[in-house]
Amino acid sequence: MNKIDLIKQNLSLVDLLEFYQFRLYRKGRLYAIRCPFHTDNIPSLFIYPDTNTFYCFGCGKAGDAIDFVKEYFEISTSEAINKILDDFNISPENPNYNFNVPMRQEEQTKDWLFYYDILEYIDYLYTKIKKAPRTIDDLDNPFFIEACHKHEYIKYLLEKLSLSEPFEKEEAIEEAQKCLEGYIKKAEYTEKAK
Ligand SMILES: [Zn+2]
Questions:
Q1: Is residue 65 packed enough to be buried (19+ CB in 10 Å), middle (13-18) or exposed (0-12)?
Q2: Which residues, 6+ apart, have CB-to-CB distance to 100 below 8 Å?
Q3: What is the 62 CA–ligand 1 centroid distance (Å)?
Q4: pLDDT of 33-90, one tens digit each?
Q5: Among residues of the chain, what percentage have pLDDT more than 90?
Q6: Which among 8, 25, 148, 174 could bridge 109 via Cys, Cβ 3.0 to 4.6 Å?
Q7: Candidates 3.30.300.130, 3.90.580.10, 3.40.120.10, 3.40.50.2000; correct CATH number of 3-87?
């Protein structure tokens, strides 16, 4: 088996990223990291464990483990291949590597991404609502008033949620929970009314 196949068939990209100290955020079946190839405030480089490939929604970088190592360490393809085989102690005689995956911080990160997604959606709605008024009367529309009052706060929460310090994230999650309570109640009420 050649070196490339050896890596492709034996090495998990998720393990590789963890080995190189990237913090992985779980998103459903996928994982995400903060992209090292562009300034990334929220994890936007996604890892697809099924195909062992990655794609960054921020800068468009894509590929497999070898591509990642090559780009990240700024080395040639053959250097990247040898580095991986070396770092993981993989050889044709010994294709399996031993790497104890540290506890993935799934729970907490799942939490903040969950709130991030909802707040991002509200941010999108408010932006649209604020652009909607055509007449003076529209300015009295309760949706418009709500958007004007709450939009800045939603943006502030989004920013706070994307900070890397865990304690700030926790604070932001608590605030987001309170802030979203009203929305969730409204949604529950509408569900019942159906
Ligand atoms: Zn990127």
A1: buried
A2: none
A3: 9
A4: 889 999 887 788 999 998 999 999 889 999 999 999 999 999 999 999 999 999 998 8
A5: 38
A6: 25
A7: 3.90.580.10
Q: Of 64, 83, 63, nearest to 73 (Cα)?
A: 83
Name the one residue in this structure whose structure tokens are 């955020």. Answer: 25
Question: How much distance in Å is there from the Cα of 147 to the middle of ligand 1?
Answer: 31
CA–centroid distance, 46 to ligand 1, in Å, is 9
State in Å: Cα 24 to ligand 1 middle.
15
CA of residue 143 to ligand 1 center, whole Å: 35
What the block records as the tokens of 56 is 């960054």
Q: What is the DSSP string of 90-129?
A: -BTTB------PPPP-HHHHHHHHHHHHHHHHHHHHHHHH
Residues 6 or more apart whose CB falls under 8 angstroms from that of 114 comprise none
pLDDT per residue over 127-151, tens digit each? 999 998 889 888 888 889 999 999 9
* pLDDT 10s digits, 166-189: 777 888 888 888 888 877 777 777
